[in-house]
Amino acid sequence: MPLGVSHYLGSAGLGRGNNTTLNSLNVPWNAYEGMFVNRNPKKLTSISDGSSNTLMMAEVSGRSLGATAANPNPDLNAMANTWVGSCCVSSAYGTLNGPSALVVQMSSNHTGVVNCCFGDGSVRAINGNIPRTFTDSSWLVLQALAGVNDGTTVDTSSVGF
């Protein structure tokens, strides 16, 4: 049965977890849980970072499953998110533009940006080329934007706004 494609999903941040190891911002990794995670509803009033500093929805237009040893040239139209059945997207994979973006990655077909809706309802473009490398400073800023209870307000200039 064909389902309507959706290019916008809720932000799960790094998802639910119990990793209390501190990162370079002196924040435990489990603090980067996003607004939309399984079995942990959020109220806007409970977002400690403030709703204007927290990702709520992100553009997700990638259709690749990524290259593997068995399939080094994957079909770029292997998958698509639909309005039903696609819940949320993790910030762990960074951002990417174009059809080679992973179906599980914040992505768009715009040049150099990914549109995101923040908890206050504002829509802002963020950098569309944030690497999925946890040692990259812009990746860490993305996690701080995606997390609802990390307690940090970061300099967002490295992610483009």
Keywords:
single chain, 161 residues, mainly beta, 5-stranded mixed β-sheet, two-stranded parallel ribbon, 7 strands, globular
Can you walk through the features of this model?
The chain has 161 residues and is mainly beta. It has one domain (8-159). It contains 1 helix and 7 strands. A 5-stranded mixed β-sheet has the order 3-1-2-6-7. It has a two-stranded parallel ribbon with strand order 4-5. A hairpin with a 4-residue loop joins strand 6 (113-118) and strand 7. The longest helix has 10 residues, at 137-146. The chain is globular, with a radius of gyration of 15 Å. The termini are far apart. The mean pLDDT is 85.
Q: How do the helices and strands line up, and which of them pair or pack?
A:
Blueprint: E1 8-13, E2 55-59, E3 88-90, E4 95-97, E5 106-108, E6 113-118, E7 123-127, H1 137-146
Parallel strand pairs: 1-3, 4-5
Antiparallel strand pairs: 1-2, 2-6, 6-7
Short description:
The protein has one helix spanning 137-146; strands spanning 8-13, 55-59, 88-90, 95-97, 106-108, 113-118, 123-127.
What's the N-to-C terminus distance?
A: 40 Å
Mean pLDDT: 85
Largest sheet: 5 strands, mixed
- Proportion of residues in helical segments: under 10%
The radius of gyration is: 15 Å
Gross morphology is globular
Question: Low-confidence segments, ≥5 residues, pLDDT <50?
Answer: none
| Portion in strands | 15-25%
Return the structural class.
mainly beta
* Count of helical regions: 1
The neighbouring-strand order within the major sheet is 3-1-2-6-7
Q: Let me know the number of strands.
A: 7
- Give the ordered list of helices and strands: EEEEEEEH
- Provide the number of structural domains: 1
